[in-house]
Amino acid sequence: MKRRDFLTSSAAATFGMAATTLGPGTATAATAGSKALLELRTYHFASAAKQQAFVDFLATAAIPALNRAGVKPVGAWRLLKDDNPGLKLEADSTDLYVLLPHGSPASVAGLVKTLSGDSWFTSDGAGTLMAPKDSPAYTRFESSLLLAFDGAPQVEVPTLAADRLLQLRIYESHSDERALAKIAMFNEGGEIAIFRRCGMNPVFFGQALVGTKLPNLTYALGFENEAAMKEGWGKFGKDPGWLQLRNDPTYADTVSNITNLVLRPVKGSQI
């Protein structure tokens, strides 16, 4: 298939699904066969103590309230120095990564208002919600909005093992056309299926609609422990299907930069 034809057909499929998912009648929870909208937040904190206070807030007030609002399962993770030697961190990161799966655009747009009307949330979380200007609960947070892939339309929870970890990966592309090709490589090309048979369990796969580092796709894999992660990637690298797929010229030059983070769940995380 020529690149121009590929771009046209891929764009039509992508924006056609977006129109279906984002159109009228989607103000309630996701229905069977629909694709989730995934909000991925990165919170920044002035200190480890502030980070821990926010973790407690998430576990006791925010995540239960989010679930009552139909946002579930909620994931919350830390980035630790020892899990990410390639980042050359001097200490554990004071950031938190939070995943909010939405069933509709209305859920995304109305979340703040919905939570503000939850009396249990505003009461249980008052200490964080009403933090003063000179000692804020967090410095800022960044957010990306992702549209789930056909091959992984909803968030999955592959394991709740005590030693579980999550691998968060961001694939940036130099053009929208090549970004769509990489998404097709995962869906129609079968890369997600290869991940599954190698024990590399999807948590989510999403096309970034809004956020930084655009165009990009962002995905996460869940593992019971570090050994399972290493074993999975070892199998993947030798898989005949992957070896054939990576040499397919249809998918050449689809990724210009990769961000790879290994994350650990914090108290209250449902993933």
Short description:
With 271 residues, the protein is of the alpha+beta class. It has one domain (3-265): Alpha-Beta Plaits, CATH 3.30.70.100.
Question: Could you give the order of the helices and strands?
Answer: HEHEEHHHEEHHEEHHE
Integer count of domains = 1
Task: Please give the oligomerization state of what you see.
Answer: single chain
Please state the average pLDDT score.
90
**What is the name of the CATH topology?**
Alpha-Beta Plaits
CATH architecture: 2-Layer Sandwich
Q: Using only CA atoms, what is the Rg?
A: 19 Å
What is the strand content?
A: 15-25%
Most strands sheet: 8 strands, antiparallel, barrel
- Helix fraction bin: 25-40%
CATH level-1 class: Alpha Beta
What would you call the shape?
globular
Strand order of the largest sheet: 1-3-2-8-5-7-6-4
The class by helix and strand makeup works out as alpha+beta
Instruction: Pick out the low-confidence regions.
Output: 1-32
Number of strands: 8
How many angstroms does the end-to-end distance come to? 39 Å
Number of helices: 9
Tags for this model:
single chain; 271 residues; alpha+beta; Alpha-Beta Plaits; eight-stranded antiparallel beta barrel; 9 helices; globular; disordered N terminus
Question: Overview of this structure, please?
Answer:
By secondary structure, the protein is an alpha+beta fold. The protein has a single domain, classed as Alpha-Beta Plaits, CATH 3.30.70.100. The protein has helices at residues 3-22, 48-68, 105-116, 119-124, 126-129, 176-186, 191-197, 226-238, 240-246, and strands spanning 37-44, 75-79, 96-102, 140-148, 165-172, 201-210, 216-223, 257-265. Strands 1-3-2-8-5-7-6-4 form an eight-stranded antiparallel beta barrel, surrounded by five helices. A hairpin with a 5-residue loop joins strand 6 and strand 7 (216-223). The model is unreliable at 1-32 (pLDDT under 50).
